Amino acid sequence: MSDVLFIEGGRVIDPASGVDGVRTVVIRDGKVAEVAERVERPRDARAVDARNRWVTPGFVDLHVHLREPGQEYKETVATGARAAVAGGFTAVCAMPNTKPVNDCAAVTELVLARAAAAGLARVYPVGAISKGSNGEELAEYGELKASGCVALSDDGRPVMSSALMRRALEYARAFGLPLTVHEEDLHLVGKGVMHEGAAATRLGLKGIPSQAEDVMVLRDIALVELTGGRLHVAHVSTAGAVRAIREAKRRGLPVTGEVTPHHLALSDEDVAASGYSTDFKMNPPLRAAEDVRACREGLADGTLDAIATDHAPHSAVEKDVEFDAAANGIVGLETAFSVCLGLVREGALTERRLVEALTAGPARVFGLPGGTLARGAAADVAVLDPAAEWTLDPARLQSKGRNTPWKGRRLAGRCTHTIVGGRIVHEEGKADR
Amino acid sequence: MIGRHKHCIALEDFSREEILEVIDLAVSMKEVLQRPIKKVPSLRGKMVVNLFFEASTRTRSSFETAAKILSADALNWTSSSSSVTKGETLVDTAKNLEAMRPDVLVIRHSAGGAPRLVAEHVGCSVVSAGDGAHEHPSQGLLDCFTLREKLGTLEGKTVAIVGDVSHSRVARSDLHAFPKLGAKVRLCGPPTMMPAGVERLGATVHTDLKEAVDGADAVIMLRIQHERIGDPLIPGTREYSKVWGLNAKKAADWLKPSCVILHPGPINRGVELSPEVADGPRSVILDQVQNGVAVRMAILYLLAGGAGEEARA
Fold it and tell me: For residue A44, what pLDDT band results from cuts at 50, 70 and 90?
């Protein structure tokens, strides 16, 4: 007797297979068996009533920080995975800037073991570009790949050495691993803590010009030409970076990009309006209105392939301090869909493109399974209520992090069910397993 | 209260009327300062804590003197290191001090926004004595007071502010306050010392000193901090003083006869100002110091809820 689950009456949006309409999704033995307009449900089969809901492939996040090992007081693989499924994410890529850095099989295996024990979202580790992410020596990409890493990154830091970056792009080719890079020229950043512009000037905070990102993106595109390596630009935040990636793609170079919900929704003026709230401090910083506009256009026209949260939980210890002293980053897994649905309502994004940038887009970037409801695919599904309105109460987040700029804000759109491999791992209103 | 404000943190948030409330009261406070017995009981039984995370002689002494003339008790708490290296957070330090039940907490800190963070966590009034490159509101108010005293009014006047605007909290407070009193502001200095987008705050930006001071009613020369040299904002003080410093010849040739010169202190003699200019007839630098006490008396009086009207008498 096989295990069967019907998701009935919802609007299925699956850009990867070109479906957008009311369908029933039939899941059998953890895989998508059928997506059809009319299908008879056996009396004993379980069902999810998805009327007035969206049914999409489970979201894929190319960029999260799960903090384990080493900073379990901020987040663990299990709490991060719980936050993921609460937000509709069925797969997340865990950045290697843990303590110790994930630059070897032992750390990768630990993350995978914790993820398996949690049994919630799929967790794909990202290995370090350099040993200890110190920017000096290459990590062992063969070992990282063999133990389960899907990409390489020194995220949190740029690879400042052009020579090391060149060799990393070259060496990674042997293992087919993309590099996902944090782009900022530390010399231009200096002691900057927010975007350089009129808002920073008014607040008296040291600024980071957009060009700190632009020059590194341009450098690395040039190095892709030299090496034939595969480059993915993490958390793109500037008009210049969007332009550079668009041009690189036009020339057929293997370059992709991601953008976070906060860089699409907020600007440096929001930092000023918040009155130095450290929930608005992140790296890259919230940029100028023209950068926000360019990122939205880049996402809409496909220059940017994916929405990624850069989920970065911190505790009050790191955040309830002076803006200058506060840690960078915000949690994002549980607000991503709502914030991005806000962009759809503003007309900056179509519904189809939103879903694509959360599903098929990111899956393609790292070559991950998932991101589609095609027959035979693993049954990773999000059921979403686009009309649900809710107020963000940080105490009710599944993440250990409470650091979000949307505290107390009204948001629209909520994930009601998340299904991983045919198993319901999140159901709104019920305690998550 | 100063108008709607329980705290004095940023002149950006102050209206024209709120600025005038302080500097009008400071006129009476200055009279108290001229008396042979410099003491009024207005703030008897009130406590002012000076919490300084950055070295300061003039501003701390000024607040301390202001508190004492008003008969408030003044406690000085100096912390040389930042909260991060010290182990106790800024919020914890502030809460500890608040437990001693002060009426006003005067805070200076190297991080922009620090007084505001403190204000969110304590019940008493908070006065910023300068936070990073954000604002120095009492300096801005004493500059307003001094300019009005010397020029009669700020209405229709032009004030040039010269120097390292990017690191200057004084320039920002002045820039927020002067236009509210009707004055135009010109900013001048090396392009490396002009913060991004500052022209959007309502000033004109100049690199040429002669052009910036031409026809100005007042010139505020900012201190060039030695740690900025090789930052690399400027190559050195030699070229800076030649191009952007004010000496007797430039003052005589370029300034209109009635133009006064201000400086928030401490002066680097021979860098931004030559000694002849600093000590010359146009200089109102020492008036600023005295007016600073009067303005801080007014701020403390308004925020600590001074008793009766005797201080105004």
Answer: confident
Is residue A351's pLDDT more than 60? yes
The residues of chain B scoring below 50 in pLDDT are 82-84, 308-313
Topology adopted by domain B11-134+289-312: Rossmann fold (3.40.50)
Q: Which residues pair with A427 in a beta bridge?
A: A417
Distance CA B166, CA A422 (A): 58
Say if residue B256 is exposed, middle or buried (CB neighbours under 10 Å; 0-12, 13-18, 19+): exposed
Considering the segment(s) B137-285 as one domain, its CATH architecture is: 3-Layer(aba) Sandwich (3.40)
Q: Tell me which residue range forms the domain holding A307.
A: 58-366
Between strands B218-221 and B158-162, the pairing is parallel
**Partner-chain contact A202 B172, CB within 8 Å:** yes
Segments in A119-210 forming alpha helices (H): 141-147, 162-173, 186-189, 198-203
Residue A197 forms contact with B (CB below 8 Å): yes
CATH of the domain at A180: 3.20.20.140
Give the ipTM: 0.91
* pLDDT at residue number B305: 85
Residues B135, A204: C-beta atoms closer than 8 Å? yes
Listed range (A175-184, A197-206, B16-25, B69-78) with the worst mean pLDDT: B69-78
DSSP letter string over A238-266? -HHHHHHHHHHHHTT-SEEEEE-HHHHH-
Distance of CA A129 to the CA centre of its chain: 19
Is A276's CB within 8 Å of B117's CB? yes
The torsion angle over the Cα atoms of residues A413, A308, A300 and A152, rounded to 10 degrees, is -160
Q: How far apart are CA A334 and CA A47, in angstroms?
A: 25
Query: B132 at the A interface (CB within 8 A)?
Result: yes
3-state secondary structure at position B119 = helix
* Model pLDDT for residues B168-221, shown as the tens digit of each residue: 999 999 999 999 999 999 999 999 999 999 999 999 999 999 999 999 999 999
